Inverse folding.
């Protein structure tokens, strides 16, 4: 493992923890040369999931893309990065435990919206406005009325 600071290849594992879901391992490492610490994650490499887009295109599932979308929706809200990571882990686990290897992007969007709705209403509205393609104020108003009920 290369040190991200000095690119030295000799590092030492200082601490190892198994993730909450048991599907990944978190390791704290220390560089032998510069003595700086950094964290690495190990995850079992799974079969590739394919996301079917609304326009018919297909692309590989990208957990970083999912995470970045949730981070954008959660900007300046009370949603912490740990919560976002948990949501991404849960969604990926649910998708991998699902019926097939090809998932409609709409299904992923619904899963994210459902989880954000329980966590933070502002993040939910932001995400939904892009995911559901709100075009005018009436769309927002309708969704807000549903949240208020």
């Amino acid at each position: 493992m290369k040190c991200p600071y000095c690119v030295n290849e000799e590092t030492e594992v200082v601490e190892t923890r198994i993730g909450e879901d048991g599907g990944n391992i978190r390791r704290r490492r220390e560089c032998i040369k510069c003595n700086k610490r950094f964290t690495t994650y190990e995850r079992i490499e799974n079969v590739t999931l394919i996301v079917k887009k609304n326009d018919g295109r297909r692309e590989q599932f990208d957990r970083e893309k999912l995470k970045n979308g949730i981070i954008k929706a959660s900007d300046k809200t009370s949603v912490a990065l740990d919560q976002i990571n948990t949501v991404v882990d849960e969604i990926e686990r649910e998708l991998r435990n699902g019926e097939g290897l090809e998932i409609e992007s709409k299904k992923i969007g619904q899963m994210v919206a459902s989880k954000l709705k329980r966590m933070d209403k502002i993040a939910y509205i932001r995400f939904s406005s892009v995911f559901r393609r709100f075009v005018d104020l009436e769309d927002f108003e309708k969704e807000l009325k549903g949240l208020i009920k």
About this structure: DSSP finds five helices and six strands in the chain.
